[in-house]
Amino acid sequence: MNLFKKLTVLSLEQATVLPYLTYRLAMDGCRVIRLEHPVFGDPNRLVGDPFLPGEERMNSYFMAINAGKEAITLNLGEAKGRDLLLELIRRLQVDIFATNQLPKNYTKLGIDYETLRAVKNDIIWLGITGFGPTSNEAAYDPILQARGGLMELTGEAGGTPQVTGIPLPDMGTSEHAYGQLMKALFVRATTGQGSRLDLSMFESTTSWLTVPITMTASFGKKISRRGNTHEFFAPVSVYPTSDGYVYLAVGNDKQFGAFSSLPQFAHLAKEEYKKNAGRIADVKRLNDEISKVTKTISTDELLGMMRQIGVAASKIQTIPEVVQDPLVADKLLHAVDAKTGFKLTLAPAPVATEFLKENKQTLSFPPRFGEHNEKVLCGELGISAEEFAALKTSGII
Fold first, then answer.
1. Among candidate residues 280, 296, 316, the one where a domain is terminated
2. Domain containing 312 — which CATH number?
3. Interatomic CA distance for residues 116 and 332, integer angstroms
4. Is residue 62 domain-shared with residue 138, that is, in the same domain?
5. Domain range spanning residue 271?
């Protein structure tokens, strides 16, 4: 039995950090209802190319992490909107309420933990902020990368700081929040008690700095960006081949012994290179010597050589090549638009969930703006057609 199907998540969400978390929950089978302002909505709906000519708020960027959800609109700046929110919590028996609003808006919008707990005392409340529940400082992923040290560690040695290729503070905080929600669900299952969870994107980001912080604060070592090389292991880098690039990672002295036993690299079987410290001390010369050899070998030939000796290596794959990778291709997710038949392809789940297996790797299509207003408000809260029309006219929905 998939117990996640019994859970209802109501999420006042926008951007990436919280929508990715609720997307994870949708992949588990939770009912996820995303809540948006009836005028402004989620700004990410307007990012990227339009899905259909003339159809607003369904742009390509929004679609990547919003499949499997429902969408309603509600103006929480109005008393009637706040009343409807409490009715939703009560009537839908919401298990998890989540928001990435600034803390100064919690009470104003009626979404603070105490207000919602008064309606449903075992609710699990989650607030994701840039710098914690006492800060109202604005934060986007690159800002967290800058302040959290990730940009200092990303880029070429001596070059300018760079952002990472994916929004790690967004995704990382989502993953940490997912873990905290699982703990809170366990607490509720065993004690009947709800929880308030506050996740700081900054704290999430700096928690990844395990080696850099210890090496800096305990051992006084300067840690900064080094391009494709590794601070503590060599040879580890990207090397050119005759038809592309390969990343090689020699993880220990035994592996380097096997590497330098190959005829092509036998000239590197030097006494000073037997230990990792010696290779690190001469890493530029070492990498130059390896590159002279690898650029004369095809990618497939070099990978075959590394597999034979047990050294980790990979071709630098493009995103189209990743999509076609046999370990990825059959795990991609899909969502089909009922209106047009358009098939949306989505990144694979981090784990194969029971819900996805049951549904053959498919999710419902990302919801249009306010798509489920009538279904939820009329069908589940019992609002009449006349009252529904009045809520639209007054700007509540």
1. 316
2. 3.30.1540.10
3. 37
4. yes
5. 236-316
The model scores a pTM over 0.85: yes
Q: Are residues 202 and 336 in the same domain?
A: yes
The answer to whether residue 170 is catalytic is yes
Write out the H or E segment, with its range, that includes residue 331: none
Same domain, 269 and 385: no
pLDDT of residue 9: 98
Query: Which one of 292, 316, 340 terminates a domain?
Result: 316
Per-residue pLDDT at 84 exceeds 90 = yes
- Per-residue pLDDT tens digits for 219-262: 999 999 999 999 899 999 999 999 999 999 999 999 999 999 99
Q: Is 52 a residue whose pLDDT tops 90?
A: no
Q: Which two tokens stand for residue 195?
A: 């929880």
Q: Which of 170, 243, 282, 337 is catalytic?
A: 170
On whether both 24 and 118 belong to a single domain, the answer is: yes
Structural contact between residues 26 and 68, judged by C-beta atoms closer than 8 angstroms: yes
What is the Cα–Cα distance from 303 to 299, expressed in whole angstroms?
Answer: 6
Query: Is residue 53 pLDDT above 90, yes or no?
Result: no
Beta strand residue intervals within the chain, DSSP E: 8-12, 31-36, 69-73, 96-99, 124-129, 195-200, 236-241, 244-249, 312-315, 333-336, 343-346
Number of domains in the chain: 2
Q: How confident is the model at residue 82 (pLDDT cuts 50, 70, 90)?
A: very high
DSSP state letter for 349 = P
**Over 183-216, what HEC string results?**
HHHHHHHHHCCCEEEEEEHHHHHHHCCHHHHHHH
